[in-house]
């Protein structure tokens, strides 16, 4: 039996990149009866970028509602908020002391974010250590993530190996990333990686007129309407090909190559395709956003299950470190 674990930060509303890069593939894996799935809301990680508590609470709700909107079975699996299980922060501190400073300093994601973000705090720097704690606390084997997380997973393995050496046994399970090669890093409306913190994302749950506005913002080159266009480099086409069926994508490719088909037409097709494909998730998402108590009940039940496992791991770790009586 494989234990699958993945988390989404509550640093913004979940976007198409999170959904196609992490949520949908993770839910597919969770449908295999051989697997046990652990999905959580990384609301401690989000403190790195979001200081407004009300906003974070809202985002955490939206992320929970998104998992449910895409069919996550919360009864069979484990579903929780990271902040409600104190063992995450405790293990993160222990692991900090097993993490070489240069490994964090050389992390690609840290370098990229520290150049772009105004607030470069120590939380951003030690982010991969808290992530390692999230994974190792639950002895997860498989971590379905987007390509941007590959290096962080390597760090988790490195940190766990160092701790296990001290423990004298494989106390912390070494996880493997599962990266769906078909799902590339999904671009945002500006062509960079779609990210909550870059504000370049498409939120599929907003009302139709807002979704239309977001799609309008997708960058394109200035090829005139009559001329053929290159589907391989165009962002609208890329996003369309991730959402539409194979035959629809083939027809769209032909439209691009033929010319006489403008980027405005492509964007309208993308909008219609999203509204159709995501009609049911949009309905379920709104249901949970409007019924806060129901959503809270689901999370609290999940947290009881998560806590029991986390406490077991932390008990063993404390013993190794001489913190237990
Ligand atoms: P932030 O900007 O705050 O880092 P994010 O948008 O990158 O937010 P995360 O919460 O860091 O989202 O990532 C959650 C999951 O979504 C991870 O598994 C990550 O690999 C995946 N993911 C995030 N952005 C993309 C993307 N553009 N394409 C594919 N997968 C993505
Ligand atoms: Mg990220």
Description:
By secondary structure, the chain is mainly α. The chain has two domains: 2-186 and 292-321, HUPs (Rossmann fold); 205-277, Tyrosyl-Transfer RNA Synthetase. Helix content is 54%, strand content 8%. It has helices at 16-30, 53-69, 87-96, 101-105, 108-116, 122-136, 150-167, 208-216, 235-243, 246-258, 263-277, 279-290, 292-321, and strands spanning 2-9, 35-42, 78-81, 142-144, 176-178. The strands form two sheets. A three-stranded parallel β-sheet has the order 1-2-3. A two-stranded parallel sheet has the order 4-5. Strand 1 (2-9), helix 1 (16-30) and strand 2 form a beta-alpha-beta unit. The model has no long low-confidence stretch (mean pLDDT 95). Bound molecules: adenosine-5'-triphosphate and magnesium ion (MG). Adenosine-5'-triphosphate binds next to strand 1 and helix 1.
Give the DSSP E fraction (strand runs of 2 or more residues).
5-15%
| Cross-sheet strand order for the largest sheet | 1-2-3
- Supply Rg: 21 Å
- According to CATH, what is the class of the largest domain? Alpha Beta
Can you identify the CATH superfamily of the largest domain?
HUPs
Number of strands: 5
The coarse silhouette is globular
| Helical/strand content category | mainly alpha
- Annotation field: number of helices: 13
Count of domain modules? 2
Mean pLDDT across residues: 95
- Oligomeric grouping of the chains: single chain
List ligands, each type once. Answer: adenosine-5'-triphosphate, magnesium ion
Q: CATH topology of the largest domain, which one?
A: Rossmann fold
The CA-CA distance between the termini, in Å, is: 33 Å
